[in-house]
Design brief:
The complex is a heterodimer of chains A (84) and B (159). With 84 residues, chain A is of the alpha+beta class. Chain A has one domain (2-78): Beta-grasp domain (Ubiquitin-like (UB roll), Roll). Chain A has helices spanning 8-14, 30-37, 42-47, and strands at 2-6, 18-21, 55-58, 61-62, 74-78. Chain A has a five-stranded mixed β-sheet. The longest helix of chain A has 8 residues, at 30-37. The radius of gyration of chain A is 12 Å and the shape is globular. Chain A starts with a strand and ends in a 6-residue tail after the last strand. Helices cover 33% and strands 35% of the residues of chain B. Chain B is globular. In chain B, a hairpin with a 2-residue loop joins strand 3 and strand 4. Chain B is of the alpha+beta class and 159 residues long. In chain B, the strands form two sheets. In chain B, strands 3, 4, 6, 8 and 9 form a five-stranded antiparallel β-sheet that branches. In chain B, helix 2 runs antiparallel to helix 3 and helix 3 (103-120) crosses helix 4 (140-147). Classes of the chains: A alpha+beta (84), B alpha+beta (159). At the A-B interface, strand 4 and strand 5 of A face strand 4, helix 2, helix 3 and strand 8 of B. Chain A: It comes from Iodidimonas muriae. Chain A: Pfam families: ThiS. Chain A: InterPro entries: Beta-grasp_dom_sf, MOCS2A, Mopterin_synth/thiamin_S_b, ThiS/MoaD-like. Chain A: Keywords: Nucleotide-binding. Chain A: Belongs to the MoaD family.
């Protein structure tokens, strides 16, 4: 099971702030996870259509497309941050 | 040891400065930066700014970066307070205080922390203005400002 969190407009487009997901075993990195997740619904596809305008974290650390994903991880998907 | 807080409530700058100053006499410089909600952004009049954040990541990342700032600039102390929730023009959003033996380290430490907060801390602003409601877009100028802390040092001959 992977916990997936969404923030800001990603959350609004997908329509929830958190999902528990069980991707197939061949999903081993972030790139593969996003490919799989974007096929879940039209809303997911819309929110994830351009990964270059998104940022990702795995277990609260910034992640890149080749970052490995395993069961029990917390994945977060969000737009570039605007704090401060 | 850095003092980090993420809170909904306002903060009192004078009180925070006094608290840090009490921590010891081994400081010759105290720098503070307060970020406020602007009333106007370009031609839009802002009526409300709502900050959302990712609490677990904020906590983890803020402690790491504050420790890095303390080591890198030999800070005696640093204090970071960041607010979330609904804010209005003139409200304080963020406070960074750095204490060091000399002013250069305190100034640089504060700038380093702010540049990092702007580009890496997981906060997002949604603004309500005369143009309606929209998520604030990240600024390229903030990324460029943050990059200087990782850029290779310029050699003495300027090459």
């Amino acid at each position: 099971m992977i916990t997936c969190l969404y923030f800001a407009w990603v959350r609004e487009r997908i329509g929830c702030d958190e999902e528990s997901l069980s991707p197939p075993s061949e999903v081993g990195n972030l790139h593969q996870f996003l490919d799989w997740l974007s096929r879940k619904s039209a809303a997911h596809a819309h929110a994830l259509s351009d990964p270059t305008i998104l940022r990702f974290a795995i277990n609260q650390d910034y992640a890149t497309m080749d970052s490995p994903i395993k069961k029990g991880d917390e994945v977060a998907i969000f737009p570039p941050v605007t704090g401060g | 040891m850095a003092h980090i807080r993420v809170q909904k409530d306002p903060f009192d700058v004078a009180q925070e400065l006094a608290a840090l100053q009490k921590k010891g006499a081994d400081m010759g410089a105290l720098v503070s930066f307060t970020g406020l909600v602007r009333e106007f952004d370009d031609d839009r009049r802002i009526t409300k700014l709502t900050l959302e954040h990712y609490p677990a990541m904020t906590k983890r990342q803020l402690h790491a970066i504050a420790a890095e700032a303390e080591a890198r600039f030999s800070l005696v102390h640093c204090r970071v307070i960041h607010r979330f929730g609904p804010l209005h023009p003139g409200d304080p959003i963020v406070l960074v205080i750095t204490a060091a033996r000399h002013r250069k380290a305190a100034f640089e430490g504060a700038e380093f922390l702010m540049d990092w907060l702007k580009t890496k801390a997981p906060f997002w602003k949604k603004e309500e203005s005369s143009n309606g409601s929209q998520w604030v877009a990240a600024q390229e100028s903030d990324d460029l400002a943050a990059q200087k802390w990782t850029a290779p040092t310029v050699k003495p001959n300027g090459q």
